[in-house]
Design brief:
- The chain is globular.
- 24% of the residues are buried.
- With 321 residues, the protein is mostly helical.
- The chain has a two-stranded antiparallel ribbon with strand order 1-2.
- Helix 4 packs antiparallel against helix 7 and helix 12 packs antiparallel against helix 13.
- Helices cover 70% and strands 1% of the residues.
């Protein structure tokens, strides 16, 4: 006798109908759309200003580098003649060499000073003093470079400068700061670093504040104390900040103009003449805008090449947490 087991069918789940978009959903979508348009409205002045005052002049300078133009006569296409003349000009070559030497010395001094002061202020100073030093070190950066250079020119004057007066009190004879190649180069570098190291200092302060204290505590358990903790902990974890600071410092130093122009006018001789000074003299003193544009294009390519090399090397030397 067979027993038939009745089959139990699973109850069918009712399919919920898709609800049409409610007014609240429509309002949310329209709100996001309006916020997107509002963002573009706020960004428009910046984008427009950057296009008009940065991208357009760069494009015009690249085009003008292939022409000979003195404002008075019509532009004449000369191809790469401007670049050939610029490369063969000894003044231009000396100015680029001076610029490279200036970048190496000034940037090394600037980053080293900023990092040392940042470590000292971050570790040794209370919070209210840290705030004071942030403002004090950043203050020179907001001053006019031309005004600062004029003031420094009087300070380092050989005859009545305050610096030589203090040296005379110590029995040291007057130093011809601005009339010798070595002295003038040292003053230009000193003034530039004094006015610009505050920005690197702020970057390093921010980078040091982002390093967790637990990392230092773990390193201390392994015996990394004193200067060793900075070598094995601070410098590796600070490498992204160091990359940013070095990139911005090098780009700024390659375009140095105010300090050497106001302090020394590029002299004595051509000892402190920089690439941007030659661009200024070619364009606004000799009215050779084609050659000035060619020098500007070469300088831009150098800046791009150095920046690209820094980011390529960063893959090996920069460590992210």
């Amino acid at each position: 006798m067979s027993t038939t087991i009745p089959r139990r069918d699973r109850p069918k789940q009712a399919v919920k109908p898709v609800k049409p978009a409610t007014p609240a959903t429509s309002q949310t979508a329209s709100g996001r759309h309006s916020q997107r348009w509002l963002a573009w409205i706020f960004l428009a002045p910046t984008i427009l200003g950057m296009g008009l005052f940065t991208l357009v002049p760069i494009a015009a300078s690249v085009v003008l580098a292939f022409f000979r133009w003195d404002i008075i006569s019509a532009p004449t296409f000369v191809g790469f003649d401007n670049f050939a003349e610029v490369v063969q000009d000894p003044t231009v070559r000396v100015s680029f060499l001076n610029t490279i030497v200036f970048v190496i010395v000034a940037v090394s001094f600037q980053l080293g000073l900023a990092l040392a002061l940042a470590v000292m202020v971050q570790e040794k100073m209370p919070s209210w003093l840290r705030t004071f030093f942030r403002s004090a070190f950043f203050f020179p950066l907001i001053l006019s470079a031309a005004s600062v250079s004029i003031f420094m020119r009087y300070l380092f004057n050989e005859q009545f400068g305050v610096v030589n007066w203090f040296l005379s009190l110590a029995g040291i004879p007057s130093v011809p700061w601005l009339t010798t190649p070595g002295g003038s180069a040292a003053v230009v570098i000193l003034v530039y670093v004094w006015q610009n190291f505050g920005f690197s200092f702020l970057l390093f302060i921010g980078g040091l504040a982002s390093i967790p204290m637990e990392t230092y505590e773990a390193a201390a358990l392994d015996g990394a104390t004193g200067w060793r903790k900075h070598v094995y902990v601070t410098l590796p974890l600070l490498s992204p900040t160091t990359l940013l600071a070095s990139v911005m410092a090098i780009i700024s130093a390659l375009q140095v103009f105010d300090q050497p122009y106001v302090l020394t006018r590029g002299g004595p001789g051509d000892s402190t003449r920089t690439a941007v000074m030659v661009i200024f003299e070619s364009a606004f003193q000799r009215l050779e805008f084609g050659e000035a544009s060619a020098i500007g294009v070469i300088l831009t390519l150098i800046i791009m090449a150095i920046t690209a090399a820094q980011f390529r090397l960063s893959k090996r030397f920069v460590f992210y947490q």
